[in-house]
Write a structure and sequence with these properties.
- It is a single chain.
- By secondary structure, the chain is mostly helical.
- It has helices spanning 2-15, 19-24, 32-52, 59-78, 81-88, 95-113.
- The radius of gyration is 15 Å and the shape is globular.
Length: 121
């Protein structure tokens, strides 16, 4: 299942995120660009789950998964979580380091989703 979540991540966070979304999501906690990106990302993850899940996903579980994905992505992208983490660990403030920390947090979140038994992967 993780490989399908990774595919959804790559689609939502890279292929379908344009410059307007990438810049706008950092302009505040709630922006049109950010909400567009977070909803697109969540949709890609849910589509991948729908394509791969061994049985039809219960609507309540799909909604719960969507909320978890949306909120976690929003917290990582729209807040200073990445910068706080980097300062706490004394990491370089270079752009590539920031991107890698951001991506690692997203992949960690998806990895954790694969071990939650309620989703029945």
């Amino acid at each position: 299942m993780f490989s399908w979540l990774l595919l959804g991540h790559l689609l939502g966070d890279w292929l379908l995120q344009n410059d307007w979304m990438a810049r706008g999501k950092r302009q505040g906690l709630i922006t049109l660009a950010g909400m567009t990106h977070f909803l697109t990302y969540t949709a890609m993850i849910l589509i991948m789950v729908w394509l791969r899940h061994p049985r039809p996903l219960d609507l309540n579980l799909a909604l719960a998964l969507g909320v978890i994905v949306f909120v976690s992505h929003w917290l990582i992208d729209a807040t200073n979580l990445v910068q706080v983490w980097m300062r706490f660990y004394g990491q370089s403030d270079r752009e590539m380091v920031r991107i890698m920390v951001d991506q690692t947090l997203h992949l960690l979140t998806l990895g954790l989703l694969t071990v939650i038994p309620v989703f029945g992967w």
